[in-house]
Amino acid sequence: MAKVAVIGAGIGGLSVAARLAKAGHLVEIFEQSNVVGGKCRTEWIDGFAFDTGPSLLTLPAVFRELFTKTGKRLEHVLELEPVDPAFAYKFADSKSLNFANLSNQKTYSEISQVLGQSPAKQWQAIIERAEKMWDASRIDFIESELTSPLQLIRKPNFLKRLITIAPNQTLRNFGKKLNLDPHLQMIIDRYATYSGSDPRKAPAVLLTIAFIEATFGAWHIKGGIGQLATALLERNLQLGVKIQTNTEVVQILTEANTVSGIQLKDGQKLSFDIVVSNSDAQLTYENLIKSNSNSVLRARKSISKVDKSLAGFSLLLGLKKSDIKLKHHNVFFPTDYDAEFDQIFKTKTPVNDPTIYICAPDDEKMVKDQSTESWFVLVNAPLHDEQNGFNWKDHSNQYGEKIIKKLDDLGLKVSERLISKSFRSPFDLQNYAFAPGGAIYGTSSNSPRAAFWRAKNRGALNGLFLVGGSAHPGGGLPLVGISAEIVANAIGKA
Q1: Nearest to 470 by CA among 10, 3, 1, 83
Q2: Most exposed of 37, 354, 386, 447 (fewest Cβ within 10 Å)?
Q3: Read out DSSP for 323-360?
Q4: Cα(174)–Cα(153) distance, integer angstroms
Q5: Which helix (H) or strand (E) segment is 117 a member of?
Q6: Domain ranges of the chain
């Protein structure tokens, strides 16, 4: 039996704590915020509820398995609803596509009707290739502890799987090789943003997202995605995990390249056998670890090579209902998608004409009454960076109003229906979720080597482990849940 300290009560921290407690360890979570969940939260403002981080659940099997192995069925604690269509895509040329939930044939039929038979066949080819990519990468890469490239090279059929994954091919180049319809190219480009990346640099293996969404579905949690964090909190408490909120860890203590405990902001030094950091990996190595051992220096150098993910600017809108009926998940594409990525990653300025994502759940538990609706609106944005980028401190209101005007220009009549509005900039995200620069997904995938530069789950000190979006296998709820399983398995049973 080991005494385990978990730094951070995001989904990664909560998930690994529950697994370790079930395995017989003594676990204590330290969270510097007053709430758990990290970026995964549902906030109530003026009688409206908003999912201010993730707004859908994919690969629900990750969390089904977590709850089952820790003593509860997911469906006994959360109410999941399939979202159909999974996504409604709208383009600047007035064309629109509804991608069906859990039905490839319906999606192919929709593409054929709107764009023609050839694009429909192209999308079928993408799904088939994405499935092969998923099969080639799932067990040995995504769901396994990653130590080095040699680990993969030694696996059976490595070369065959490498060809399937096409690590040196970007999403953009993959589409060009297929001579992909420009509307479909925009959709696969968007998959890069799921990891906060640039599609011109992100590897084509992110196409697996298309297969995952189509095969395992898109799901809404009744009452909001924050219910997942609440359910995990209850699971931890039932398993005997101690949770301290409003408690900041300022240092991971070490002795001879081995963790010995943590130090809190109030000066307390607490002894632990194992420390699991759900904090951002860069913050962990640069701020919490004072050691300059060779292993720590190598970890810092590796992490420094990985770009942070893009940030997001969000609007939380409480509205009167109207005759405008949006789907649950809506994406409005701009005329020039490349200009968006240029502004985010090159000039580091707010996007003039951004892709607009709107989550408009039809959920009576998330509104003040049946005559109203709540919209979570998200646009991609550059990181908050006062020295070398854009300073978001004093620009939230101005940019928020600009996005509202764009929503009006799209015919959504937002201004005349507004009851409540709040804006959240990357600066705000940095402050409440402790995400450097407001990076949504931790680290990006802007390189075929990014996966190997990303922080390893087994840390640079004996007894140190890392979990969450900045660690292997990456950001997003399913991957964070998988990272928790990897860490728990690496630590083992008591």
Answers
A1: 10
A2: 386
A3: S----SEEEE--S-HHHHHHIIIII----SS--EEEE-
A4: 24
A5: helix 117-137
A6: 3-41+53-81+222-306+445-491, 103-217, 310-438
Structure tokens, 66: 């977590």
* 53 within 8 A of 104, measured Cβ to Cβ: no
Closest CA to 5 of 459, 455, 479, 435: 459
Top-level class of domain 3-41+53-81+222-306+445-491: alpha beta
Residue 434 near residue 283 (C-beta atoms within 8 A): yes
Q: 8: which 2 tokens?
A: 């951070």
- Tell me the two tokens of residue 247: 């408690």
Burial of 104 (0-12, 13-18, 19+ CB in 10 A): middle
Query: How far apart are alpha carbons 390 and 93 in whole angstroms?
Result: 31
Nearest to 333 by CA among 356, 312, 350, 315: 356
Residues 219/202, Cβ–Cβ less than 8 Å:
no
DSSP 410: T
CA dist 107 to 19, 150, 191, 343, Å?
Answer: 38, 39, 17, 32
Residues 221 and 63: beta-carbon distance below 8 Å: no
C-alpha 436/C-alpha 455 separation (Å) is 15
One digit per residue, the tens of pLDDT, for the chain of length 494 reads: 899 999 999 999 999 999 999 999 999 999 999 999 999 999 999 999 999 889 999 999 999 999 999 999 999 999 999 999 999 999 999 999 999 999 999 999 999 999 999 999 999 999 999 999 898 888 777 888 877 666 666 666 666 666 677 778 899 999 999 999 999 999 999 999 998 999 999 999 999 999 999 999 999 999 999 999 999 999 999 999 999 999 999 999 999 999 999 999 999 999 999 999 999 999 999 999 999 999 999 999 988 888 889 999 999 999 999 999 999 999 999 999 999 999 999 999 999 999 999 999 999 999 999 999 999 999 999 999 999 899 999 889 999 999 999 999 999 999 999 999 999 999 998 988 888 899 888 878 887 667 677 889 999 999 999 999 999 998 899 999 999 999 999 999 99
- 8 Å CB contact between 171 and 206: yes
What is the full DSSP assignment across 167-194? Answer: TT-BHHHHHHHTT--HHHHHHHHHHHHT
CA angle 453, 457, 458 (to 5 degrees): 105
Question: Which residues are within 8 A (CB) of 387 and not within 5 positions of it... i.e. 6 or more apart?
Answer: none
Inter-residue contact 215 to 358 (CB < 8 Å): no
Distance between CA atoms of residues 318 and 297, nearest Å:
48
Token pair listed for 226: 């924050």
The tokens of 201 are what? Answer: 């640099």
What span, in angstroms and rounded, lies between the C-alpha atoms of 399 and 476? Answer: 26
How far is residue 48's CA from residue 246's CA, in Å, rounded to a whole number? 26
